[in-house]
Amino acid sequence: MTQTFTWWYRLRPWIRPILPFQRRPNPVTFLGTASAQPSSTRNHSALALRLGSDVWLFDCGEATQHQLQRSTVKMGKIEKIFITHTHGDHIFGLLPLLASCLNGSGGQIEGADDPRTQVDIQQPPLEIYGPLGTRAYVRNGLAYTHSLLGRPYVVHELRLPSDPADGDFTSMPSLASESPTGQNIQQTNEVWSDIYSDSVLSVSAAPILHSAPCIGYVVTEAKVPGKVDPKNYIPDLKRTNTPMSVMRQLQLGQSVQLSDGTVLHGPAPKDGRKIVVLGDTYDPSQIAGIARDADLLIHEATNAHLPGIDEDTKDTDTYETVETRAISRGHSTPQMAGRFAKKIGARRLILNHFSSRYAGNDDVNEEARKIMNAIAQLAQDEYGDAVTVDGSRDVRGIFPHRTKGS
């Protein structure tokens, strides 16, 4: 045992440096979990996905800046923002956040010299993705509030077949800080495939049904190296006096031939994680194909029927009437979220976008805890025991674990 441990300790330097963790998804931080009306315990919608030292935001409701300051997410590290739809509770915090992130100011007096009027458009821009109207909202909002940004941004719009293929949906001319490289991305087979990709991550999207054009996003991690079990290699390495540096090749899944002809095979790579972030929806079925086998599904659950638990429950309500009312407003119940999680085989379901009647202080308030546990149980009952269901609360981090064995 001691001898094996000694060899493993000597092998560690050859294995650990090649694991490319720098850009892989770390905690998902919920910055806002309210629905249309915020409360003292829930902010408007926003969540942050940390990728090493970088941050991607999904939605940016009112006061997202304040929530960032309450969290451990660094505002200056935000490099991409994905907007699900242009309802105010998902986008009203975007312009103030851009002003803070991009060295913004409230304009200048006539004749004054401000370098922010001469933005270096060659700098890497902060990228914004969203539906038709996102570009017009940002451009018009910055123009009419006389806001100057000291660094560039760019807006990519995900266009539906019913949308105009070209144009900016506004007659307002581009601002100095707006990069001209914004794309109008068209669908292929009813989804937007690989709207962003690099060697570690890719993002695809699909429309989901709400009371306004709405998008769900799927973040997929590239395959990761399989786990090296030193017991499978140490005897052959010792017998042939092979340099430990071959462990780099084995960790990458490659094969190595030793001096005596023995061929060692590295472990097969494993699938990376898949994180699905849905906007508001009463029917996300159009994203099911690319969301299948998600390690983490984030799904709204605006309304719930909680007789005997929620004192505000109406005597005339039933599960069916609450669901019908939620659908009529473009929203979901916990049961609807549970059914969709089961449909796509999600391994973990996190509920968000709660009515203001459901307090977000369930970590310290027993009544709120009972309500949130009951909401989670409604979704759990629809799926069964195969999935972990939880309710989100503001400034809470969830680690998107890779499914065991995948």
What characteristics describe this protein?
single chain; 406 residues; alpha/beta; Metallo-beta-lactamase, Chain A; eight-stranded mixed sheet
Task: Trace the largest sheet across and list its strands.
Answer: 7-6-5-4-3-2-1-17
Radius of gyration: 24 Å
How much of the sequence lies in strands comes to: 15-25%
Distance between the termini: 29 Å
Named CATH architecture of the domain at 25-101 and 187-223 and 271-393 = 4-Layer Sandwich
- What is the CATH first-level class name of the domain at 25-101 and 187-223 and 271-393? Alpha Beta
State the share of residues found in helices, binned by percent: 10-25%
The main β sheet shows up as: 8 strands, mixed
| Average pLDDT rating | 89
Globally, the shape reads globular
Number of helices: 11
Which class best fits the helix and strand makeup?
alpha/beta
CATH homologous superfamily label of the domain at 25-101 and 187-223 and 271-393: Ribonuclease Z/Hydroxyacylglutathione hydrolase-like
Instruction: Report low-confidence residues grouped into runs of 5 or more.
Output: 1-21
CATH topology of the domain at 25-101 and 187-223 and 271-393: Metallo-beta-lactamase, Chain A
The strand count comes to 17
SSE order, one letter for each helix or strand: HEEEHEHHEHEEEEEHHEEEHEHHEHEE
Keywords: Endonuclease, Hydrolase, Metal-binding, Nuclease, tRNA processing, Zinc
Cofactor: Zn(2+)
Organism: Armillaria luteobubalina
GO molecular function, one term: 3'-tRNA processing endoribonuclease activity
